[in-house]
């Protein structure tokens, strides 16, 4: 993303600026009720879903992997909660408990295993900084990791002298990726991390199989789920990972600067609290003994924006109203149709895996004659499509 603006044309830059033009603040936008699925034709149902969003029709927004639009009900939950709390100047910290229960149910875990963060990057950073790693200990992750997933480990390489080992994602089969990880494991390997779904090509890793591999070797398994929760149904208990971080403001459609970190309950004490303050625990008198919260909430501290947590809870409710399996199937069907049609265009190469079990709702392409910035600008200027340049690992692609 660092090179994003370098490839933009003047027209695209102007369009970006135009999108930021201030407009008069309006009251909450009324939206039609969401019909029950099956009560109307499918096209009408998905049209009603689209009507829940204040997102404009131009440009056509195709960058949920970067920043997901939020439905009006989420925005209302954020605004109304913040306004109500301001009427008495209260923090609303008591709202975290019911929100934690709702999120835990959504993820198939216990409330004490859930911590609210600002984004996936913060969750990844808590794990990287909190695990007891020594110089020479090895961490394995894929070469297509987002900066929010790779930078925390690169920093620990500088700070603590750990060893980072990467493998290239294999688009041929899930088993090939498990084999690539297995080949890198040594007695010094302490952590394996993968993106549940890569931000580059949309490859879906076989996380259950990787969890089994890590458990067999006594290796911590962490998942960067920035691109998965909200795109596909997830159940962290069934996956079997030790920890999992995701952003609420992508596929889940939550408010900006919202996220979740899951730490398995029997692994909570293995992650030191590197950021701490009020609400992380209790310390009755000074000096005295600090007693940390008995759950992942020990990694939450200080005054927080309870409106964002209310919005994230509403995002969960909205997804469940549509149907999580239905969302995943609809997204994969549209992306699959796009993949097939783009494959027919001379000069286009589709980087997204072909097997259905290895892809979700993203499609990434390259063009033989142009780099990512120019292709992005062409799609914006000529067709009004808001995509995302993919320049990681020299891919020169558009997602």
How many helices? The count is: 12
Helix content: 25-40%
- Kindly state the number of beta strands: 15
The secondary-structure class comes to alpha/beta
Q: Uncertain segments of ≥5 residues (pLDDT<50)?
A: 1-26
Main sheet strand line-up: 2-8-7-6-5-3-4
The separation of the N and C termini measures: 12 Å
Major sheet characteristics: 7 strands, mixed
Strand % is: 5-15%
Encode the helix/strand succession as letters.
HHEHHEHEHEHEHEHEEEEHHEEHEEE
Instruction: Average the pLDDT over all residues and give the rounded result.
Output: 93
**What does the radius of gyration come to?**
22 Å
Query: What is the approximate shape?
Result: globular
Task: Give a nutshell description of this structure.
The chain has 399 residues and is of the alpha/beta class. The protein has helices spanning 10-19, 42-50, 72-86, 96-107, 120-130, 147-160, 174-184, 207-217, 236-239, 306-322, 324-342, 372-383, and strands spanning 60-61, 114-117, 138-142, 163-167, 189-195, 220-224, 243-247, 259-263, 281-282, 291-292, 348-350, 365-367, 385-386, 389-390, 397-398.
């Amino acid at each position: 993303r660092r090179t994003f603006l370098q490839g933009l044309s003047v027209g695209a830059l102007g369009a970006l600026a135009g999108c930021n033009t201030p407009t008069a603040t309006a009251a909450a936008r009324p939206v039609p009720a969401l019909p029950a699925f099956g009560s109307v034709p499918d096209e009408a149902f998905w049209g009603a879903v689209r009507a829940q969003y204040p997102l404009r029709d131009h440009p056509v927004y195709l960058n949920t992997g970067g920043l997901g639009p939020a439905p009006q009900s989420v925005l209302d939950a954020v605004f109304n909660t913040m306004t109500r709390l301001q009427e008495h100047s209260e923090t609303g910290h008591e709202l975290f408990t019911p929100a934690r229960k709702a999120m835990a149910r959504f993820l198939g875990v216990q409330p004490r295993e859930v911590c609210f963060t600002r984004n996936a990057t913060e969750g990844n950073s808590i794990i990287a900084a909190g695990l007891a790693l020594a110089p020479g200990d090895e961490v394995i992750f894929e070469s297509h990791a987002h900066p929010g997933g790779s930078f925390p480990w690169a920093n620990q390489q500088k700070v603590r002298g750990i060893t980072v080992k990467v493998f290239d994602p294999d688009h041929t089969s899930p088993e090939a990726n498990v084999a690539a990880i297995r080949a890198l494991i040594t007695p010094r390997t302490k952590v394996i991390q993968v993106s549940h779904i890569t931000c580059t090509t949309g490859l879906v890793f076989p996380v259950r199989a990787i969890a089994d591999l890590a458990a067999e070797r006594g290796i911590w398994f962490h998942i960067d789920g920035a691109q998965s929760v909200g795109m596909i149904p997830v159940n962290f208990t069934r996956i079997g990972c030790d920890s999992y971080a995701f952003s609420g403001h992508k596929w889940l459609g939550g408010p900006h600067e919202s996220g979740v970190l899951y730490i398995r309950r029997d692994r909570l004490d293995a992650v030191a609290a590197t950021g701490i303050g009020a609400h992380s625990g209790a310390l009755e008198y000074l000096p005295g003994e600090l007693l940390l919260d008995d759950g992942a909430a020990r990694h939450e501290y200080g005054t927080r924006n309870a409106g964002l947590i209310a919005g994230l809870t509403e995002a969960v409710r909205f997804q469940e109203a549509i149907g999580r399996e239905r969302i995943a199937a609809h997204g994969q069907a549209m992306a699959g149709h796009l993949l097939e049609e783009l494959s027919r265009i001379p000069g286009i190469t589709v980087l997204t895996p072909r097997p259905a079990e290895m892809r979700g709702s993203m499609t990434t392409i390259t063009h033989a004659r142009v780099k990512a910035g120019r292709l992005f600008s062409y799609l914006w200027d000529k067709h009004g499509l808001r995509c995302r340049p993919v320049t990681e690992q020299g891919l020169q692609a558009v997602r």
